[in-house]
Each structure stands twice: as C-alpha cells, then as structure tokens.
Amino acid sequence: MQHLDLQVIEQALQWSRAGHEVWLCTVLSTFGSAPRPPGAMLVARADGACAGSLSGGCVEEEFLNSLCQGAFRDTVSIIRYGDNDDERRRFRLPCDGILQVLIEHRPPSQDWFSHLEALVATLRGQRRQVRCVDLTTGALTLRPDQGGEAAQVKDEQVEIRIGPVLRLLLAGVSPVARICASFARELGCEIIACDPREEAQGVLIDGIDVQPILPSLYIASGGCHETTAVVALTHDPRIDDLALMEAVRTPAFYIGVMGSVRTSAKRAERLKRVAGLSDAEIQRIHMPIGLGLGSKTPAEIALAVVADVLRVYRGKARDEL
C-alpha cells in the first residue's frame, strides 16, 4: 500500500461524514501493461470531485463522466476497461492493457464510517488485513491477512489485501538521506527521520521535521512494521550501528547501511562481536546499501538506495533486473 491509498480512504471518510454519497473504486486485476497495480484506489462524489488514481488518466475521466450522468447506482459492480481495441485507444492503455475495477456506491452510514475508520487504522498501523466485499449484498468485513493476491474474486466475494503504508525510516540526516526522502515522497511513501545530533535539529527533510531521538530508540519503541525500510546513511557508527542492532529485531522488510565493501565487512564483524548479532541477522542487512549502479554523487547514491528498497518491496531478485 502507498501513501496515496491512505489519502483516498481519509478523503472518503471526510466526504462521508459530511453527508456525501461516495463511490470507492479499486483496481482488481490488470492484463497486459497498466500504470496502476491491483489494489489501487480512487474515491469520487456525484459531482465529479475525486481523489486517487486507477490508471493515471483516461479511465478516471471515463468513469467520472459516467458517474455524473447517473451511472453506477448499484451498491457493488465490477467493470472492465480496455476490453477492445477502440477502448484501448480511447483510454490510452499501453500494450493491450485491460483493467478490472470494483465500484462501490456507499451512502453515508455509521457502518460505513466504522469500516473506513478501520481501514485508516490499518493503513497507519502494524498489521495487514483483508477487506472482503460481498458482491451480492455489498456487506463489508475485515479479517487478518494470511497472504495471497493483492485483490481477487472468490465465491461471490471480492478480497482486497490492505496494510500499512510503505514507510521509509531515515536513521540520521545526511545529503543522501535528504534526496532519498525526495524520491520516496514521489513514490508515495511515509517518511520518518530521526537524528538527535545538534546539527540535525530544526532541519526539514522534504517538509518533514527531524525527530530529535536516536533512530535505535524510535525503532525499539515499535517504529517498524512489515512494510518499513530502515536506511542508515550517516557514516556515523553511533547512529548507524545502533539503528541496525535494533532493526534486525523487527519485521522491517529492508534494512540497509551506507559504506564501501571494506567498511561493510568491518561493520559486520563489529556487529557480531559487540552486539552479538547472528549470521542470519547480519544477512538481513543490505551492506553496501543500494543497487550497484556505480553511484558517486549523493543523488546517484540516493537513487540506488530507493531503487533497491523498491526492488525488495516488489519481491524482485537482483538477477531479475
């Protein structure tokens, strides 16, 4: 889940509380090439106001035009965009792309408010859940996520996995960290920066206040969930090593630290000797951090770092690139 999804659900809750009917759209599947993945969401009102994205353009326009003309009055419906050559040209879907979209028409009600509040808590929280929508009655339930496809239709029910927003935890402030934050913002990540050093106080990283706390303390207090990436980019062992020691004890999906191959080998030995980290815990740490792009400048290093985070998040091995 990206930060955009949280914005969509928060907007749906705001409009619903204000008394508006809303239409919540979710991409269920894509065939061929598609700009947005399964699980991507858009919320709209009857007047055409909307938040979120399904395809990055013409599909949204087609949906909103139909909505403003009175379409989609059923509680739940599924529609396919791009089923023929004319539609693919009209919607500018690349490579014969087809989108299957769940459309929910939800009037304001206490049950709907409660469901949206639960989704907001899930996106901000620690655990993934599955959002279940009954295609016959429109009934809504949430259950713990046991893994599986991002979205699927099973036995007259749609199941959509929903979980915490991808979080980039910057362990310390540095030129590379600043640029990583900028890239991560464009990708829709939640960004948290921690650095207790005096020179980091009052600093903004892409509009984010730096928390004046050791990253290791923030991590130890529960700051990492399963969609958290911890990146240590300061070259200061007092910041970097302590953050790594705590991060390997969390479900963070990515842990990385900046340094040369030689520096990384020395760090691995130090973490084993001083902190008692096991070989398995050491293997969880990406060091040197990032893809091997031959990066030299802070911007190039930041690009390599964020690209590697995204690679691991998408489940891609290095030899698949």
TrEMBL record:
XdhC Rossmann domain sequence ranges: 168-309
Annotated TM spans: none
Residues covered by the XdhC- CoxI domain: 15-67
Coiled-coil regions, chain positions: none
Protein name: XshC-Cox1 family protein
